[in-house]
Write a structure and sequence with these properties.
The structure is a homodimer of 429-residue chains. The first copy, chain A, has 429 residues and is an alpha/beta fold. Helix content of chain A is 34%, strand content 26%. The first copy, chain A, is built from 13 helices and 23 strands. Chain A is globular and about 70 Å long.
Chain lengths: 429, 429
């Protein structure tokens, strides 16, 4: 029997680990709660009607179809038995155990409301396809409801969109919503001008795009403001309800009336991390990440790798690139051991740079010492994402959707489902 | 003030009526329960992962964005006050009235279970985007669950798909599911060969594609069977549950074990038809369609047109073409009246032919005396649908999805949402 590798999660980390094992003498089992991988950096485009869910969420088994040593199972890992070396998996309706020789835990992170989970009802996050489709319904639904509202002040609350958190996701979302209202929806409504919509980006820290070099932060803020986004820094959200948000800045309380709120402020690693760490006494930080050894293994369990957003190592950020590289590192380590080389080599992260789009034709890019802004940055973004979507079924449909959104002025993917209309009706009484 | 035209429903009938009024001196109000028009003939491709919902469901207001005399409202018409000439509309959360001078009722039809609405839970219909996304989750989910099932007999029930009703929708769905299992999903699973999946097409009548000329019916059945679809004619469904269906044929009862059932058997016109007919004593047939005068107006109310699937006239079928033409007829009649020409002209339907795809490269087409089958018919289908998707934001993304599905061998749109996984979990206990 071959060496059995179990991988929990098919995000960037899990998928790159699985792919990197394709020539190794192992049996790979990938377990995920959904049937799809998620190209998370483009999720905001699903929420704003640019891309379809299929464009950013290929079926995991489709990505791995030709890798004969890999199988994919739909199920939720609810426990890890480190002693018996078994996963406890809740498949749809049943519970089963999967034995492993090596384990790669790549369960990722979910939205964090910093102890205020009650905010989630009124300010959904942006971490899953379900989130993105929910937000799509809310964003386009808000414009529909504004068209129905005769009273100006109430209409304004439908036309106010608040994004909480000015990391890349928040910045990209705010930019897209502004672009939607200023350009894409022009001429669609009769009782108001969608360009009058307010887009407010609220951030607790003193800057946007914290991980970027300072000049790019300033440029991003400048570009956002030129697009019509109101950027409110040093502002803390203290309450969220159906009608708006309570905020506080420098000890002064304020209120923003807004029907549509989106939470892009923080992440919390999967509870699986704490569950595993608890068994061996490993440290877990406030964000739920497990402190691992330099080679990404769990202390005392060299056969268990914790990678990506779930891993705490050297202050590495929770970005796709870290997940991919740590996944590949875990895979290479397993393959090396099977060849008899058991030296643990530390994981070395190679920073390939970082980028964020502001609107069409505008982005900020930081690669080593190279810093790009404006059109040059946007073209770099486009190129990199077209290349990265390889292995995805095809890039042409995504590219066609982009052509419509960026060159034309429409959004092809703005379907509100009847379930969403029904749910909203119930909420609004 | 301009003449006010209210249009209920933005299907083919309502949308064609609105478009045909673009140069008339009228104010058009289109009311629909959803924000999208639905290109229903391609809905089966959303269910089977070929197209995204945005490909077949453009936003109504996007289609009408440049028609300045038209506005679009999201709302459900719950009553028509023929005396006061007002619609009673339930917009999200509120109730309002919309006054009209002319009314076009194009509310269409929903799935009919012929008095067995309890079948719907286990055998969803195929009339809305919600239906198609639900079926997408069930179809791809069934293969996922088959992969998890160790017991062969139980696995077979996950790999059995039953389509009830052999009209164009049922035939196209059965063909696509067969193609999915025989071609598109090849190599995706490890514990079974998806080509072993059974696709059963159950029909109460003695033939498939009843509205087509007989030679095409035979050809369609032959093509389906060659593709691996089991066609069971003269077979009545008497019960549907989670595990399968009860059927009866020539008085002999039978049972089909199948986890995935799809209902494509009948339609029931919107209850709005009966509501209106009741006020004037007009006849309503068993399918809920309102008998109208030869010019598509409601008896005694020349200002009210009932068109499309909601109209009963001269035995015309409930197809897109009839809806479009009757919509345009109503619009032209209103425009003529405003020019002073009040003669009511009868609606004359021009049959432009009918077509159905069986699989990629195979279809049946009947246009006048011309009958096509096989590749020639399929190319005709492709051409007609590419042309018809005009006015849709762009055809290129749809065409790109088609290229992947028909020339390559994949399905790009097979995302199962977490909500669907969760719902299925609950159902299966």
């Amino acid at each position: 029997m071959s060496h059995r590798v179990a991988i929990v999660g098919a995000g960037f980390g899990g998928l790159f680990a699985a792919r990197a094992l394709r020539r190794a003498p192992v049996d790979v089992t990938v377990v995920d709660r959904t049937n799809h991988h998620l190209f998370q950096p483009l999720l905001y485009q699903v929420a704003t009607g640019v891309l379809s869910e299929g464009d950013v969420a290929p079926a995991i088994r489709d990505v791995l179809r030709n890798q004969r040593n890999a199988r994919v199972l739909l199920g939720e890992v609810i426990d890890v038995d480190l002693q018996a070396r078994e996963l406890v998996v809740d498949t749809v309706g049943e519970r089963s155990r999967i034995a492993y020789d090596s384990l790669i835990v790549a369960a990722g992170a979910a939205q964090s409301y910093f102890g205020h989970d009650e905010f989630a009802v009124h300010a959904p996050g942006m971490k899953t396809i379900d989130d993105a489709l929910e937000l799509r319904g809310r964003i386009f639904g808000a414009f529909e409801l504004a068209e129905l509202e005769a009273e100006a002040k109430r209409r304004d609350t439908w036309l106010t969109f608040v994004v909480v958190g000015a990391g890349p996701t928040g910045v990209e979302l705010a930019g897209q919503i502004a672009e939607l209202s200023r350009r894409a929806l022009k001429r669609d409504y009769r009782t108001f001008d969608p360009a009058d919509a307010r887009v407010i980006l609220v951030e607790a820290a003193g800057k946007v795009l914290a991980p970027f070099p300072e000049p790019l932060q300033h440029r991003a803020r400048h570009d956002l403001e030129r697009l019509g986004v109101e950027v409110r820094l040093d502002t803390l959200v203290t309450g969220v309800d159906e009608e708006g948000l309570d905020v506080t800045r420098d000890g002064v309380d304020g209120r923003i009336d807004a029907r549509t709120k989106i939470w892009a402020a923080g992440v919390q690693a999967s509870p699986l991390g704490a569950m595993i760490a608890g068994q061996v006494g490993a440290t877990v930080d406030r964000a739920g990440r497990v402190s691992v050894r330099p080679d990404c293994t769990l202390p005392g369990h060299p056969e268990v790798f914790v990678i990506g957003d779930l891993m705490r190592l050297d202050g590495l950020p929770g970005v796709a690139e870290v997940a991919m590289q740590s996944g590949a590192h875990a895979a290479r380590t397993i393959a090396r051991r099977l060849r008899g080389d058991t030296r643990g080599r530390p994981f070395r992260y190679r920073d390939l740079g970082t980028m964020a789009t502001i609107s069409r034709f505008r982005a900020v890019v930081s690669i080593g010492r190279v810093r790009l802004t404006g059109l040059a940055a946007w073209l770099t973004w486009l190129l990199v994402h077209l290349v990265f979507l390889t292995g995805f079924k095809n890039r042409f449909a995504a590219a066609a959707n982009w052509a419509v959104a960026f060159l034309g002025h429409g959004r092809r993917q703005r379907t509100i489902t009847e379930r969403q209309v029904f749910a909203r009706k119930k909420e609004l009484g």
